[in-house]
């Protein structure tokens, strides 16, 4: 790995290597700190002597710069449907600078986590995070693993496992439960699934942060199980009308 800042750029190098294999060793990566006078994300890409030198303000910016270069020269196209990779034997002469006025580039929303993501494993999520980095995303929504947190919390307040089973919806309907619209629908939610998503979320957050992203994690939405309301009659709890 011939990078100037080996440890600093470890995560961006891994994304590039996953994309183009050993040719990533021909990339020299370095992170440049932002200044008070210029607080925007920016990058610079240059080729010389079959080396690709990339400077950027974060690991995600470096990934975006690398993809911009590879796409500009017609060597790589990354999409949800699949990747097209056709690398030249030697790198073309190239020089480019880029910047963005947008401090945060957001991706994903609450409803996405009820479509295909309930069945994603860590390998699939890791691939999606690579896609995010290559497209410059630095504010991704990270909503996996919520139910184990709520499960542990409600147990502390006296809600039993059986009552929680009656509360949680099935995997595909959890976004609407998390937003306070439904409960129990197409449950029971398997404990194995809850544990698996907890483990995946930890890996998701670790990788996102390593790439200098700012993952958005859930807070308490104010929606409580029916059993909690029945056990805490002095609490101020309102029941919503049917959705």
From TrEMBL:
<feature type="domain" description="Alpha-N-acetylglucosaminidase N-terminal">
    <location>
        <begin position="14"/>
        <end position="90"/>
    </location>
</feature>
<dbReference type="InterPro" id="IPR007781">
    <property type="entry name" value="NAGLU"/>
</dbReference>
<dbReference type="Pfam" id="PF05089">
    <property type="entry name" value="NAGLU"/>
</dbReference>
<feature type="domain" description="Alpha-N-acetylglucosaminidase tim-barrel">
    <location>
        <begin position="106"/>
        <end position="243"/>
    </location>
</feature>
<dbReference type="InterPro" id="IPR024240">
    <property type="entry name" value="NAGLU_N"/>
</dbReference>
<dbReference type="InterPro" id="IPR024733">
    <property type="entry name" value="NAGLU_tim-barrel"/>
</dbReference>
<keyword id="KW-0378">Hydrolase</keyword>
<dbReference type="Pfam" id="PF12971">
    <property type="entry name" value="NAGLU_N"/>
</dbReference>
<protein>
    <submittedName>
        <fullName>Alpha-N-acetylglucosaminidase TIM-barrel domain-containing protein</fullName>
    </submittedName>
</protein>
<dbReference type="InterPro" id="IPR029018">
    <property type="entry name" value="Hex-like_dom2"/>
</dbReference>
């Amino acid at each position: 790995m011939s990078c100037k800042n080996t440890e600093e750029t470890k995560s961006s190098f891994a994304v590039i290597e996953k994309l183009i294999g050993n040719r990533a060793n021909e990339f020299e990566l370095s992170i440049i700190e932002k200044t008070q006078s210029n607080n925007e994300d920016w990058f610079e890409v240059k080729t010389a002597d079959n080396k690709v030198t990339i400077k950027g303000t974060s690991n995600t910016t470096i990934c975006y710069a690398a993809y911009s270069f590879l796409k500009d020269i017609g060597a790589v196209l990354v999409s949800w449907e699949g990747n097209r990779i056709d690398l030249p034997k030697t790198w073309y002469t190239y020089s480019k600078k880029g910047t963005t006025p947008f401090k945060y580039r957001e991706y994903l929303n609450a409803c996405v986590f009820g479509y295909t993501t309930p069945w994603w494993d860590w390998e699939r999520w890791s691939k999606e995070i690579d896609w995010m980095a290559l497209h410059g995303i630095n504010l991704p929504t990270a909503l996996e693993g919520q139910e184990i947190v709520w499960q542990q919390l409600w147990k502390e307040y006296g809600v039993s496992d059986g009552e929680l089973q009656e509360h949680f919806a099935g995997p595909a309907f959890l976004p609407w439960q998390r937003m306070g619209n439904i409960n129990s629908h197409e449950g029971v939610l398997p404990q194995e699934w809850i544990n698996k998503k907890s483990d995946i979320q930890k890996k998701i957050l670790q990788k996102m942060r390593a790439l200098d992203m700012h993952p958005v994690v859930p807070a308490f939405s104010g929606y409580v199980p029916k059993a909690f309301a029945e056990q805490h009659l002095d609490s101020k709890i309102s029941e919503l009308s049917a959705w």
